[in-house]
């Protein structure tokens, strides 16, 4: 009842029609269910109202109750509200034609006073709230929502068509059908405003309150929405790239496949779960079969469109040499600028790709091609060419543009991580191949200049800083342990016990290898020689799927003692490699020397007084290093003095690159849309 007298809820912005008409904040509506017939007869309406009146009287409920009558689109209601000693009936009348006296304030006040039926004269002043709404509908004809199409454009004169890398935005038709301007005069008193059929003081320009409301068109055609919707539809496609294009571009046939598999078996360092992909197989069969089994005229993408997309994705391939061959830059793409802190915090929950990265550009091109150039067939065609470009860059040591030169970023999508992994493999392979050339030059110089073997050995040791250069791209380069290396190991034990041999042969055996630089002024404990930082292998980069596989393997080992020991050995591969590099760089060292460099917190030093009264600093390993069956002690005893350049690679770039290329080749268009 209080809501009927309150004027604060006269014009709510969004509310039920009864709220706007009566100013109620709480109400109950009784309406027929969706499948039931409307209340059309007067007898049925009276029956419902009497039932509502009885229910309100029995319960003492003061909330108004309305019954919807006639058809739903008429919005016609009758209702009742009961309070202590007061009852209010709500009734409605629909008129086909509005009488003239109902079109101005004076006529409405006369009706209101007659309905009240108050016998007091004169009547108290009536409070009024007025809102006049003006509707604008005919402005669409004055401008185009989109620029007129360019018939000569690459996208074929489509509305909203732009170049690759920019998705169209906006609606083809105006999404706003009506614009409502409401001029409001709240809390007025009768007599202040004159509004009749002859004169009116209600000038919208003088209204104290203005409000604007828009009415949207039903399902307008919006370009960006259409693009994204069509792209999301790819997620429901089940076909593979080979099925869409008609025949596998990576299919093996005849003797070529047998020969390639035979070569793969001979050259691969370890078995790789790749059945249809190898370097030789791709070189001899893949590119040839694409054009052989699918003519140029049958390709979903024309040469102009395909070349434009590839040049956009790989801008480093734009320059051409004089003979027409393609010249590709060997430097990585410029580092992607870090995102702003606010944007980074806002989007950190999503898995996407950095702006202007290769993955970002690829997603834009796939979306554009899916909508304008052949749909899923165009997507499959572009992806096939993209995979071939990735293999070409891997085989020819060309970096992939648009990617940061770092380990895979786990915050990005899996596809972006895979491309980063492939770039890491290219970087390792390129460094190894370039280092190999330097070593060959050093060997030639060694052969010519035989009078200075020691200086040549020093230069060779400096070149050894790039450990990756000592292993061929197609093999692991493992050296069997010879008798000389066993003597080295014995020399290590002798150094630990303080035993020194003076023979020139022993000095030659203990020659250090793989030194980077001295570790400050620190010296080895027993020989007293300077302690050198060794050249070590970098840890293997990992993508999120590889981390999951590794976690599953470690979890399957169980909680038994044997499983825990095996798990520790698997996780200490990098530690063992660093120990071997340290032994090779510091002949005669002991575990304490390694701990002082690798984990200084595990070497505790104390000041003591000797027999002569002088202060002497003595150190020992921490308590956790003295635990029986300590993995550090076992690894140290197992480690042999092998420099990083002759160790087994922790990161097999050849195998990992083939795994990435295989992953890319088997991706379906649906997988691309999900990633």
TrEMBL record:
Q: Offer an example of a GO molecular function term for this protein.
A: GTPase activator activity
Domain Rab3GAP catalytic subunit conserved, chain residue ranges per copy: 511-664
Residue ranges of the region described as Disordered: 447-467
This protein's UniProt keywords = Cytoplasm, GTPase activation
Q: Where in the cell is it found?
A: Cytoplasm
Q: Name one GO cellular component term.
A: cytoplasm
Question: Compositional bias of type Basic and acidic residues: which residue ranges?
Answer: 447-465
Which family, according to the similarity comment? Belongs to the Rab3-GAP catalytic subunit family.
Q: What is this protein called?
A: Rab3 GTPase-activating protein catalytic subunit
């Amino acid at each position: 009842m209080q809501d009927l007298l309150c004027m604060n809820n006269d014009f709510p912005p969004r509310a039920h029609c009864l709220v706007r008409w009566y100013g109620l904040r709480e109400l109950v509506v009784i309406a027929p269910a969706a499948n039931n017939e409307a209340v059309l007869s007067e007898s049925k309406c009276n029956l419902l109202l009497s039932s509502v009146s009885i229910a309100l009287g029995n319960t003492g409920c003061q909330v108004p109750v309305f019954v919807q009558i006639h058809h739903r689109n008429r919005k016609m209601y009758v209702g009742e509200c009961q309070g202590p000693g007061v009852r209010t009936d709500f009734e409605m009348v629909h008129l086909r034609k509005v009488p003239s006296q109902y079109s101005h304030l004076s006529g409405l006040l006369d009706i209101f006073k007659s309905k009240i039926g108050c016998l007091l004269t004169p009547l108290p002043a009536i409070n009024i709230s007025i809102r006049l709404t003006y509707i604008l509908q005919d402005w669409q004809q004055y401008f185009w929502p989109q620029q007129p199409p360019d018939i000569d454009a690459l996208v074929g004169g489509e509305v909203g068509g732009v170049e690759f890398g920019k998705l169209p935005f906006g609606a083809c038709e105006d999404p706003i059908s009506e614009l409502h301007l409401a001029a409001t005069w709240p809390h007025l008193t009768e007599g202040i405003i004159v509004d009749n059929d002859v004169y009116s003081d209600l000038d919208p320009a003088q209204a104290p309150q203005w409000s604007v409301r828009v009415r949207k068109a039903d399902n307008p055609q919006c370009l960006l929405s259409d693009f994204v919707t069509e792209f999301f539809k790819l997620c429901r496609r089940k076909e593979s790239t080979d099925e869409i294009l008609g025949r596998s571009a990576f299919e093996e046939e005849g003797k070529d496949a047998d020969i390639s598999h035979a070569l793969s078996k001979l050259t691969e360092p370890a078995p790789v779960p790749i059945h249809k992909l190898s370097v030789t197989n791709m070189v001899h069969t893949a590119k040839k079969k694409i054009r052989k089994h699918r003519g140029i005229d049958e390709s979903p993408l024309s040469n102009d469109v395909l070349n434009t997309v590839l040049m956009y994705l790989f801008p480093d391939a734009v320059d051409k040499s004089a003979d027409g061959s393609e010249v590709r830059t060997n430097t990585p793409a410029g580092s992607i600028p870090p995102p702003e802190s606010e944007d980074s915090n806002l989007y950190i929950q999503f898995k996407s790709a950095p702006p202007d990265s290769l993955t970002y550009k690829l997603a834009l091109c796939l979306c554009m091609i899916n909508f304008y150039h052949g749909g899923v067939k165009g997507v499959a065609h572009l992806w096939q060419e993209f995979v071939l470009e990735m293999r070409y860059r891997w085989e020819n040591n060309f970096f992939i543009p648009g990617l940061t030169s770092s380990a895979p970023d786990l915050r990005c999508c899996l596809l972006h991580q895979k491309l980063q992994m492939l770039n890491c493999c290219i970087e390792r392979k390129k460094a190894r191949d370039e280092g190999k050339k330097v070593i060959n030059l050093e060997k030639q110089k060694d052969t010519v200049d035989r009078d200075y073997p020691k200086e040549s050995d020093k230069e060779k040791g400096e070149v050894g800083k790039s450990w990756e250069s000592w292993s061929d791209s197609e093999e692991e380069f493992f050296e069997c342990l010879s008798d000389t290396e066993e003597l080295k190991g014995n020399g290590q034990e002798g150094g630990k016990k303080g035993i020194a041999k003076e023979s020139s042969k022993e000095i030659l055996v203990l020659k250090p290898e793989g030194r980077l630089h001295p570790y400050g002024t620190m010296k080895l404990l027993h020989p007293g020689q300077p302690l050198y930082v060794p050249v070590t292998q970098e840890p293997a980069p990992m993508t999120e799927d590889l981390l999951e596989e590794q976690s599953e393997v470690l979890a399957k080992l169980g909680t038994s003692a044997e499983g825990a020991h095996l798990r520790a050995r698997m996780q200490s591969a990098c530690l063992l490699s660093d120990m071997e590099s340290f032994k090779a760089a510091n002949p005669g060292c002991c575990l304490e020397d390694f701990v002082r460099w690798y984990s200084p917190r595990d070497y505790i030093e104390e000041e003591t007084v000797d027999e002569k009264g002088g202060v002497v600093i003595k150190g020992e390993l921490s308590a956790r290093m003295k635990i029986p069956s300590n993995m550090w002690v076992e690894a140290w005893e197992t480690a042999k003095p092998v420099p990083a350049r002759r160790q087994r690679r922790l990161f097999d770039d050849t195998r990992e690159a083939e795994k990435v290329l295989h992953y890319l080749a088997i991706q379906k268009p649906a997988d691309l849309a999900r990633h």
